[in-house]
Amino acid sequence: MFGRSCRALLIAAISLLIAGCTGEEPEQIVLDSPPRPTGPAREERKRVRIAVGGMITPKEGMGYYRDFLRYVQEKIGSDVEYVDREGYAEINEMLRSGQLEAAFVCSGPYVDGHRQFGLELLAAPQAYGAAVYHSYIIVPKESPVASFAGLRGSRFAFTDPLSNSGKLVPTYMLARMNETPETFFREIIFTKSHDKSIKAVAQGVVDAAAVDSLIWEYLNATAPEVTSRTRILEKSPPYAIPPLVVPPGLDPELKEKLKAAFLNAHDDPRGREILAKMRIDRFVVIDDRAYDSVREMQDWIAKRQPGT
Fold this sequence. Notes:
Layout: H1 4-17, E1 28-30, H2 40-43, E2 48-53, H3 62-76, E3 80-85, H4 88-96, E4 102-104, H5 107-117, E5 120-126, E6 132-133, E7 135-140, E8 155-158, H6 164-175, H7 181-184, E9 187-190, H8 194-202, E10 208-212, H9 213-222, H10 224-227, E11 230-235, E12 239-240, E13 244-246, H11 252-263, H12 269-277, E14 282-284, H13 292-303
Parallel strand pairs: 2-3, 2-4, 8-9, 8-10
Antiparallel strand pairs: 1-3, 4-13, 5-13, 5-14, 6-12, 7-10, 7-11
Helix pairs in contact: 3-11, 3-12, 4-5, 6-13
């Protein structure tokens, strides 16, 4: 394994080489809203805080999420605050502690939050005709590696420690081989987003990465000059798509307003236009059981850890 100095140099290299990796601080943005009356009536209008993690969409696509949340704001009649965070653990904690009314999270964090504090599903995006996605194991286009097993001793990029496609799936693949990321790879890093992982592979900063298929396909449509420098080495089975979630105990009226705004957006010309830019067909209702395959992977790995 590399020492700490080599790890620091590798992470620094990613920061310098990957376009769009600016190290910006997380942000909270109050979206534009129509003029409101002053006085007591103004104080009664509560903000609805919705988090969109930097892992969910490429940096270039964040503007579309802001546009969509402006659309939601108009539909629900409450101010919407766009909250940008880079880590799923932080988003889950904000949901647990009542600092958010809703959030877009990955399948893994939803399963964790549901188990730990009753996190609830609100809706899920349907993309390319289905509410599923895959983990892509990608390598540079010219890489001679022919299989996942051939990545032994490589430099590998994960996205977030709680990510399903960007961490859990490849860890499960290794567990089935009686390996762990630490024993199998020469060096592992966390890029904090799938587009950064894709660019790290494209630029040869790492030898391989595990990424969200939807984000790879999004970039393949919008920035083929990046994805054309990568190759999909392996494609996982389908998993239930990263959902929109709400904390337990959310005001029922607000919950129904949010749900209606998301589920009906594809029937509205403006909503449909924004969804198309997000590469989302529509939002649909999804059942908790759809995420059982994620739970099964987590449980399988846990049972094989020392002391369990």
